[in-house]
Structure formats: structure tokens, C-alpha cells
Automatic annotation (TrEMBL):
Record bears the keyword Ligase: no
All residue ranges annotated as the Carbohydrate kinase FGGY C-terminal domain in the record: 274-470
Pfam families cross-referenced by the UniProt entry: FGGY_C (PF02782), FGGY_N (PF00370)
Protein name, per record: Gluconokinase
Entry-linked PROSITE patterns: FGGY_KINASES_1
Family statement drawn from the similarity comment of this UniProt entry: Belongs to the FGGY kinase family.
Keywords: Kinase, Transferase
Native source species: Paenibacillus spongiae
Domain Carbohydrate kinase FGGY N-terminal: 12-265
Length: 533
């Protein structure tokens, strides 16, 4: 039985999305996907969760074998569903979270845990590069700002803190590369979008950056082989194929990073159309027809495919802040709502909306977990500013929600400047965007229309679209993206938008004014953690 012998009838793409806490797999009907680009193409889904471990404060790791096993078990679960026939599958494609790093020996055995994007152990190395004046040039060459999340900084940490492991490592790879190696063996392969997030890839040269490698203390031979996101692998290990329930010769598309694929899946590739995703964290991204590193070092720029790059910035201040508001400010209300069968988050939003736009002059810097774009400051901390006796918990809730979106607006302005023109539409996705009230809040703060991307799994849909191009089933990614449907267009409400325009400059001034104090209080907090250990 061959995976590419389908000469007629329905054709199915399997998309595998390796996320931070789960792997999601879906089966998409290629014919419907080409025509609609939305969730109507999805005929089956499966998912398996896994933990994000914090063995020490600020260190976030995972077991790479547990993730690889989760990928395989989710694929098996998908193929057991009646809606999916293996005979109809024409290919498999991958999406994955970025910035992960692990060391492996010559036999592919992990020497370290998987160090995730959230890990902060290398913060001092990122800070040293910034204070030493090297960060701006690194960002210009690699297209990614210097931050603890980048494998560049993580390698510098490993070199100095785990020298025996560092020297013993045959290769340094990420999670997708490890999964593909388990499936195929041979050399490790990394697509250009994931490589773009390492801080080790030269954006203009399309190869590993020699100066960044020198900083990390490695040569290119210890990194994966670079490949296009549309690169197709064949010849799966027979034991893996048997375990998955797939033919060994099924075409497997290397795929790309989840962020750029989320833009593709949301149809946000046109000029002036940005994707805003707010899950646990958040991001703003826009498509470009050329590579364009941000001269001010605020944004990333990653390549998805020839003629299609994405510029944008991730924020830490997303749903994690909403969860903090729920658990720390209104736990009793959240518990009562849950007991009544009401979503606790709906209750939070309803309470917040009882106050006026601008929360009567209360602003929130929602940097409770440090911040990435546009500041790239691991020491940034949360602030409520303007608090008075007239404010109550409803104002705090509203200011917190507004603080999340004001932070995204700061990234969106940088994105628009890089793209060379204003944003004319935001396509929103993620758990935050499920709320109509919060989509309206986004439109009011961004000052442009916000539509709901009509797909629940934008990254996986994007991976399926990429497979259509790679397997010759489609002519262009932009053509596929143009078919994506949106819903519930929200226009800015002029009165509310005017309030946010008035308060936004005050919001922007706060970070610069408080940055030195952030560094001092973060150092004090780290001392508390060490003294408690």
C-alpha cells in the first residue's frame, strides 16, 4: 500500500503541530482546503498533552522522547478514526514551536532535556550581548533579537555551565529535528523558518552565520542541515512506519515554525493584513515579499518559502496574564461561575466591561512574565499605574485586559513600520480572540478592523497548505491563503478609540521610565528565590 498512489478521489494531508504543551494532529481534505482554506477541510483531529517542567525557577524543560512518543500516538489515534483512510493520505507535514534546543550524541541519544523557548537560564548572556553593543548587529544579520529564548544564548550558557556535555555533544538540534530523526534517521534537517529563530542563521545569506557560531563556540557541522520548508522526506524507518500505521514511502514535508504557519493558516499574507494570535503568550506577524530585519532590533524576520517572509514579534503578556487576573484577583467569582456552568473567563470579561474604556485612567504594564517584543527584557515586571481610591477590582481587570492589547499594539506599530505601510486589518486567533468583547477591545485599541480567523488550528492548517505546495497540489501559498474565510468583522468604535489614542503615549512612556527599576527589583527577586532554595 503506497501513500502516494492515490490517482483519484479524495486526497488527505496529515498535519502535525508540535506545541509547547501538546501535539495536535489533523487530517485535511486537500480538495476542500484548496477551495475554502478553513476548518471545513478538517475531517479528523487528535491530540496528546505533555508537561512543561520547571526543575529550577526560570528553567523550562521537556522530555524530548515523551514529545516524540506523543507525536506518534496522536498520529495513530488519528488514523484509527473512521473518517480517515490510509489509502487516501498523500502526505504528512509538520509545524512546531520555535527556539528549542537539546544536545544529542553520535547515535542520536539525548544528552540534555529539551530546553524550551520559555527558559530564562541564558538571560545574563543575552544581557551581556545587549550591554556590550553586539545585539543590534546580531539581530541585523540573523533577523531575530537577542534574548534568552534563542539557542544562540542557550549554547553560550551550556558551553560555560555544562562544559562536559557541551564538548560531548555530536549535534545541537530542536524538537522537530529530533522527531524527524526518529522517523528517518540519517542527518538532522532544520527548515529555514525554525533556523531563523535560533540566532545562528544569516537571514540574507540563507546559511548558518559564522560570527554567531563563533560566539556560541561551535561550527556548522554540529548543527542540522538546512532545508526549505517544502523539502520532502521519503524512506521512513520501517519500524516507525509500522508503529504509525503509515506506508514507509509516504512523503513527509519538513514543514515550518508554528508562528509563520499560523499566518498562512489565517490567510494573513496580504499587504497590510496582520495576524494577531493570543494564547498563553501572543504575537503579531505580517507577510513580506523580501527579508527585512528590524533596524531597531524589536522584531523577528523569518523565511517561510521563496518570496514569502514574515516579520513580527512575540509577547509573553497573553493569556498567562488573563489567568493571573482570574486566579489572583477574582478567584471566588471564577469559582462561582464555574459552579454555575459559566466560563470563568466570560465572567472576568463581563466584570471588566462594567467600567469605561481606559479604566478611568488606570494603566497596566502586563509584563508579569518578563517581556519579549518590543523590549526584549527578561527583567520587565508588571505595573498598575494611575491607581486611585476610585478604582476597584473591575478597573484592575479592565486595565489588565487593556494592558495585554496595548502591548500588542506596540508590536503592531513596529510591524507596520517594517512593512512600510499602515495595517488595514487584523486577523485574530487564539483563546483570547474567542470573546467578541475582547475582539472589539482589540479593534478599539489597534484602531483598525479586527476579524476572526475562521480556523481553530491555524498552524496545522498552514502546515497542510504548505504540503499542498510541496506535493504539487497547489501553485502558490498566497493563492491558498486567499481562500481563507474570516468572520465577525469588528470596526473601531470612535469614542473608545479616541480614549486609547490619548492614553497610549502614556502607556509607552512607562517602560522607558521604569526599565532601570525593573532591573533592580528583578535582581532582588532572584535573590529571594536563591535564599529560599
Amino acid at each position: 500500500m503506497s501513500g502516494n498512489s492515490n490517482s483519484g478521489g479524495r486526497k488527505i494531508i496529515i498535519a502535525v503541530d508540535i506545541g509547547t504543551t501538546s501535539v495536535k494532529v489533523l487530517a485535511a481534505d486537500a480538495g476542500i482546503l484548496k477551495g475554502s482554506g478553513d476548518m471545513t477541510a478538517v475531517i479528523a483531529k487528535a491530540a496528546v498533552e505533555y508537561p512543561l517542567n520547571e526543575p529550577y525557577p526560570g528553567r523550562f524543560e521537556q522530555d524530548p522522547d515523551r514529545i516524540a512518543d506523543a507525536v506518534e500516538s496522536s498520529v495513530r489515534a488519528l488514523l484509527k478514526q473512521d473518517a480517515v483512510s490510509v489509502d487516501e493520505i498523500i502526505g504528512v507535514s509538520f509545524s512546531s514551536a520555535m527556539h528549542s534546543l537539546m544536545a544529542v550524541d553520535a547515535d542520536g541519544v539525548p544528552l540534555t532535556a529539551l530546553i524550551t523557548w520559555a527558559d530564562l537560564r541564558a538571560a545574563s548572556y543575552a544581557g551581556a550581548l545587549r550591554s556590550g553593543g553586539q545585539a543590534a548587529e546580531i539581530a541585523r544579520r540573523t533577523g531575530v533579537p537577542v534574548h534568552a529564548m534563542t539557542p544562540l544564548c542557550k549554547l553560550m550558557w551550556l558551553r560555560d555551565h555544562e562544559p562536559v556535555t557541551f564538548q560531548a555533544a555530536h549535534a545541537f538540534i530542536g524538537v522537530k529535528e529530533y522527531v524527524l530523526y526518529r522517523w528517518f534517521g540519517g542527518s538532522y534537517i532544520m527548515d529555514e523558518s525554525v533556523a531563523g529563530g535560533t540566532g545562528l542563521y544569516n537571514l540574507l545569506e540563507g546559511d548558518w552565520d559564522s560570527e554567531a557560531l563563533a560566539l556560541a563556540g561551535i561550527d556548522a557541522g554540529r548543527l542540522p542541515r538546512l532545508a526549505a520548508s517544502t523539502h520532502v522526506l521519503k524512506g521512513m524507518r520501517q519500524e516507525t512506519a509500522d508503529a504509525l500505521g503509515l506506508p514507509a514511502d509516504i512523503p513527509v514535508v519538513v514543514g515550518a515554525a508554528d508562528g509563520v504557519l499560523a499566518n498562512l493558516g489565517a490567510g494573513a499574507v496580504e499587504e497590510g493584513v496582520a495576524a494577531v494570535t493570543v494564547g498563553t503568550s501572543g504575537a503579531v506577524r505580517i507577510g513580506l515579499d523580501r527579508p527585512a530585519a528590524d533596524e531597531k532590533g524589536r522584531l523577528f524576520c523569518y523565511k517561510l518559502a521563496d518570496g514569502l517572509w514574515f516579520s513580527g514579534g512575540p509577547v509573553n503578556s497573553g493569556g498567562v496574564v488573563l489567568r493571573w487576573l482570574r486566579d489572583k484577583l477574582v478567584p471566588a467569582d471564577a469559582q462561582d461561575a464555574a459552579g454555575s456552568g459559566v466560563d470563568p473567563y466570560e465572567r472576568i470579561v463581563a466584570l471588566a466591561m462594567e467600567t469605561k474604556p481606559g479604566a478611568d485612567g488606570l494603566l497596566c504594564l502586563a509584563h508579569l512574565a518578563g517581556e519579549r517584543a518590543p523590549h526584549w527584557d527578561e527583567d520587565a515586571r508588571g505595573v498598575f499605574f494611575g491607581l486611585s481610591l476610585g478604582h476597584d477590582r473591575r478597573h484592575l481587570l479592565r486595565a489588565g485586559l487593556e494592558g495585554i492589547v496595548l502591548g500588542l499594539r506596540a508590536v503592531a506599530e513596529a510591524v507596520a513600520a517594517t512593512a512600510g505601510g499602515p495595517l488595514r486589518e487584523i486577523r485574530a486567533s487564539g483563546g483570547f480572540a474567542r470573546s467578541a468583547a475582547l475582539r472589539q477591545l482589540m479593534a478599539d485599541i489597534f484602531g483598525c478592523p479586527v476579524t476572526l480567523a475562521d480556523t481553530e488550528e491555524a498552524s496545522a492548517i498552514g502546515a497542510a497548505m504548505l504540503a499542498l505546495l510541496a506535493l504539487g497540489e497547489a501553485g502558490s501559498l498566497r493563492g491558498l491563503a486567499s481562500a481563507v474565510q474570516t468572520a465577525d468583522r469588528r470596526e473601531p468604535q470612535r469614542e473608545a478609540a479616541d480614549v486609547y489614542d490619548r492614553l497610549y503615549p502614556v502607556y509607552r512612556s512607562l517602560y522607558d521610565a521604569l526599565a532601570p527599576a525593573f532591573a533592580d527589583i528583578a535582581a532582588y527577586q532572584r535573590g529571594l528565590v536563591r535564599s529560599d532554595a
